[in-house]
Amino acid sequence: MKKRLTAAVMAAMLAVTAFTGCGGNSGNVTEDTTAEDSAKSENSAAVAGDVDMNGTEITFWHAMGGVNGEAMEYLVDQFNKENEYGIKVVSEYQGSYDDALNKLKSAQLGNMGADLVQVYDIGTRFMIDSDWIIPIQDFMDKDDYKVNLEENIAAYYTVNNELYSMPFNSSTPILYYNADMFKAAGIDAAPATFNEIEKISDALKTKGGAKEVISLGIYGWFFEQFLCKQGLNYADNGNGRESAATAVEFDSNGGALQILEAWKKLYDEGIAPNVGRGGDAGLADFSSGKAAITLGSTASLKQILEDVNGKFEVGTAYFPATGDDDKGGVSIGGASLWALDNGDDKKAAATWEFIKFLVSAESQAYWNAQTGYFPVTTDAYNEEIFKNNIAEYPQFQTAIDQLHDSAPQYAGALLSVFSEARATVETEIENMLNGKQTPEEAVEKMASSINAAIEDYNLVNEE
Question: What is the average per-residue pLDDT within 227-252?
Fold first, then answer.
């Protein structure tokens, strides 16, 4: 496995490596498992008691900048001061998620790198295939470690009942709305579907004063979440969780066409103008008071509140569905922690101690308060800092409720070529909105391009 992944990296330097779709399998991550797994055949999970860790130094690569980076450094400093084993963590900011993963690929080709790396959710399939890791389940089983992870967060990183990485910073998308505009328009509840957005659009403009009804960024993650809300798979082979995916399913199951037709309808009616590509593309129009509604990550809440700065009341609601009969859930975004197998038991044991510290109730409550990401462990809800944060930012309760109302089967797909695929989805949606193609043509181009990329990857990496 390692040889053929190395060949793939050298041949194509594939960028980011998994999809976020919905469906698939999950398991109880706190129990021992017997699932076969090629990635753990030669890896060794060492824990405290196996080795003397005194003076051990480990390197941690992460992708948190700004305020999030400051919170990360605080946690690293606390661990270095408090841990009883004399472990020192050296944290190194690597830039974006893409930058961190690409540097890891280059480093592994040269037999160097970090001991622990933060990789975003959609890099999961590559990390599993790489054989560069020690699965977190190995540490948990050997250490008899139990943690009350949020079920719908852990499900994303769980394959065949095996937890491969430790969830750390997780988020879901939600709907943000201008509560003052809604009140002026006489609207009592936030919309749950695209049809409901259409029905309240005139009132928001004529009575609420909105210049835009919804500022909806063209973002691949939103496309994937709309599919989640339908409860449909993104890819075949159980969303790539039963075995490696060979093709997308969003074309054959009708999910993509529903999304694009509903999106195009809102665009054609002047309800959802083209505000650009990316997850933050729609936030500026909302925060400035131009748009009545926007979609964004739960981790954007504090930034939105800061940008609004009291000009209006910010309301939050569940991520909307594109169809009235959609009964699915949402998938997480964010990143997790991967232990790298460097053949050093001391470093492996030290890495595990640091991981346990980062997902402790105290650390996760602090992380949530500082960044807006979910606490990945439910024990954090009992911490005073978490309670105080919810009291100050009650809008975040929406995110927690939505997470709990979802289910593990919407955890998301695992695929191999996300960078190309997400860019393709965004390009084709943009072309559709600009009148260059129909929704049907856009779906066909998405599927054809992504399937070709999957086929190329699988050919390079086949046994």
Answer: 94
User: Where does the pLDDT of residue 112 fall: very low under 50, low under 70, confident under 90, or very high at 90 and above?
Assistant: low
268-318 pLDDT, tens digit each: 999 999 999 998 999 999 999 999 999 999 999 999 999 999 999 999 999
Rg over alpha carbons for the chain, rounded to the nearest Å, is: 22
Residue range 30-44: mean pLDDT, rounded: 43
Residue 280 DSSP SS3: coil
Query: What CA–CA distance (Å, rounded) separates 425 from 405?
Result: 27
Rounded Cα distance, 275 and 265, in Å: 16
Rounded to the nearest integer, the mean pLDDT of the chain is: 89
Q: What one-character-per-residue DSSP string does 41-106 give?
A: SS-----BTTB--TT-EEEEEE---HHHHHHHHHHHHHHHHH-TT--EEEEEE-SSHHHHHHHHHH
Q: Any alpha helices (H) in 269-344, and if so which ranges?
A: 283-287, 301-308
Whether the Cβ atoms of residue 2 and residue 404 lie closer than 8 Å to each other = no
Tell me the C-alpha distance between 156 and 349, whole Å.
Answer: 25
Tokens of 54: 């005194």
Count, in order, helices (H) and strands (E) of the chain: 19, 12
Residue 26 has pLDDT above 80, yes or no: no
Mean pLDDT of 396-412: 93
Q: What whole-number distance in Å separates Cα of residue 347 and Cα of residue 339?
A: 10
Task: Name the burial class of residue 74, with classes exposed (0-12), middle (13-18) and buried (19+) by CB atoms within 10 angstroms of its CB.
Answer: middle
Name the helix (H) or strand (E) containing 168: strand 166-171
Between the two ends of the chain, the Cα-to-Cα distance in Å is 8
> Would you say how long the chain is, in residues?
463
Cα–Cα distance, 100 to 314 (Å, whole number): 34
Phi first, then psi: what are they for 34, rounded to 5°?
A: -120, 15
pTM of the model as a whole: 0.88
Mean pLDDT of 398-409: 94
